[in-house]
Amino acid sequence: MKAAAAKHAFQRAIEAYHAQSEVDPACPETADGFESPFFQKAWIDTVQWHLEDEIRRPDLSGPEVLALKRRIDALNQARTDAVEALDRQLKSQLQPTPPSGASALRTESLGWALDRLCILQLKRYHMAEEVARGGDHATRVAPRLEVLDRQSAHLEAAIDTLVEDVKAGTVAYVPYEQHKLYNDPDTNPALYRVT
User: Fold this and answer.
1) Is 194 among the domain residues?
2) How much is the pTM?
3) Does 191 fall in a domain?
4) How many domains does the chain have?
5) Range of the domain at 56
6) How far apart are CA 70 and CA 79, in angstroms?
7) Is 43 among the domain residues?
8) pLDDT tens by residue, 21-56
């Protein structure tokens, strides 16, 4: 697995979203293929990105804000679920058995590093749109796009290094689970105390 392949799937999803006109459409790709989970994850992120924009509109009524907030919460949980599923899949492919002997740990799993790469692609896409607006605005935001491009290249290289280290067994693949208590009716007091 190379970070560039995941990035390509993320970018395909982002472009596919922007080629249609709905704000909250269903993901058009459900096929089983290497890129499919990456595409689906990016689709979730892209829909959530645009709903986050929408919820900031000053003309929305209270019920509209509440409905958007609940949809954003559901997408955020779907994003977490997608990353954790990616971690399980990648762990089974890259390191099906724990490495023998001492191995290093990392502060985040490969799935969460890929999540950051996906969000960077969204930022790059939208910053490029801002640059395309032209004029003084483009002059102000173009350096931001350059920063995002550098960050993306750096993160891709770091992900590729992590993949090689995991394959070699010098780094243990330890999935990082979020356990979002606020989304669980069994662990959120505001939900389980409701009579």
Assistant:
1) no
2) 0.92
3) no
4) 1
5) 3-185
6) 14
7) yes
8) 999 999 998 767 888 999 999 999 999 999 999 999
